[in-house]
Amino acid sequence: xxxxxxxxxxxxxxxxxxxxxxxTPHWVPYLPYLVPGLIGFVAVIGIPFVMNVWYxxxxxxxxxxxxxxxxxxxxxxxxxxEQFWTSFRNSVSMIVAMVLVPTLxxxxxxxxxxxxxxxxxxxRTAAVxxxxxxxxxxxxxxxxxxxxxxxxxxxxxxxxxxxxSIGVTNxxxxxxxxxxxxxxxxxxxxxxxxxxxxxxxxxALQRVDxxxxxxxxxxxxxxxxxxxxxxxxxxxxETFVVVLTxxxxxxxxxxxxxxxxxxxxxxxxxxxxYYSYLNFFDKSKxxxxxxxxxxxxxxxxxxxxxxxxxxxxxxxKEREGV
Amino acid sequence: MAVTTADxxxxxxxxxxxxxxxxxxxxxxxxxxxxxxxxxxxxFAIMLLNAFKSPGDYSQNGPLSWPQALYFEGVxxxxxxxxxxxxxxxxxxxxxxxxxxxxxxxxxxxxAIGVGRIKGRLWVVTVFLLATMLxxxxxxxxxxxxxxxxxxxxxxxxxxxxxxxxxSAFGTYLLASVLGxxxxxxxxAAALDGAGRWTVLWKVVFPIVRxxxxxxxxxxxxxxxxxxxIPLVMLTTNDTQTVPVALASLQGDRMMDAPTTNAGALISxxxxxxxxxxxxxxxxxxxxxxxxx
Lengths: 322, 293
Hints:
Chain A is mainly alpha-helical.
């Protein structure tokens, strides 16, 4: 929704004040209002970002240790670092668990709640169900991770205590076995994530003209056809927003990994952000950690740009098509 | 066009047929949606069941049994061990100041961009938007070093400054688009009355965008409260930690038995839950108000 309004505004903005600006630089007196924001931005984001790039060109143990300039050696080493590649391969699993599955399930749940259950059982029922799905979203993700870490704990966890009580003699070590750790983490992330698309999509459906549905219903279109022909195309802008924000979040994910598995066992759940954290604060390889975080930044920006371009293309196609 | 009675009858029949079918199907769909809701709630239910159950009761009767007697030592353990009131205060101070300062900073930026229409505003907005996507790992080590240099290491103020700027990057992006559609007639009327830019901001713009600002403030508060990575790195001692960091840093500790872990998770998520319940109404109202604009 925001991207849409922003673009509409940008169109209007370039048209209108271009005339006004020629007479007087109307905007100059407004510059002081931007000063505090710009100072903060430069100090907290601009300078640190440049410094991080600078660090990545050095071999440095951090603190007062000497810094040796080594050029792009850190980046060259990354190419041969198996753990680095593993961490980015695991990012794909993160995207499946935080973007793909929640968006697909979220679409269906939102459409069912809005278009079916909301009409058959009243909007209160739909609102209560929506709030339930959203519940994991409001708690600190670290807290959710600690809770799940205990639930999945091999010895004292709720799942295995339950399995043993019904006679399973050797229940799996969910988070401690390389084979089950990643699926377990993914399951937790789906649980955390699912409420977000449901809420966004349900609010998106509110601006869809109900007459569209009524007309389709009169034409004899069943629920699935209405879902495919009306719901999905109508809420495409929100789908892009959800996919963009969730993909960025999936690439950045740190907290759940930190509290669930610390990247283990045997690196099976290692992700780029945690790998760079390890190098910064555990292995004291600051330059190397900085290089990893810069590659991650680059990947995120490329992915974001790809999604934004796809979005503007689909919007253009839609405008031309109709 | 003439409509034959047969047509009408056929339509009626199909309507009845449909109603009959959906009558049965709707309970199935409802059951499916409820099952998903139950699955979402199971971890919370397990947490509640085991937060007040003694360790002996837990190992004997398992995680799904009703507690034989209410056991409060888990809560007590966690509360005293973490000095929970202090963690609560740390989280509250950081999130509260960030919510107010971040919203203020967003408003000032957005006023220059949306109302002032400064040159190159599209670039400014784009840079702010890209900044919201940066991984915090790409900033953390320099920020850590800088905080040490200016004497703010292990200080809540370092975290407050960082999050004020990070949150306001998103806030600026959002508010600039809201203020970009601000009715020019109002601004012109105020200018005719001789109001300066500062007066216009607080007497004309601020009252109108207040619902959006309150939503932004609530979001900033919740997001900052839930943040983990930067507080984990910047707040290095026990007495400065926030609630989520305190809970996570006790993981693997020997005193963290089942009731203590669950009680800890429970009282750590309660503030976020309470805050959300209090402001849920404002959120819904504000979101709709924002979208109408």
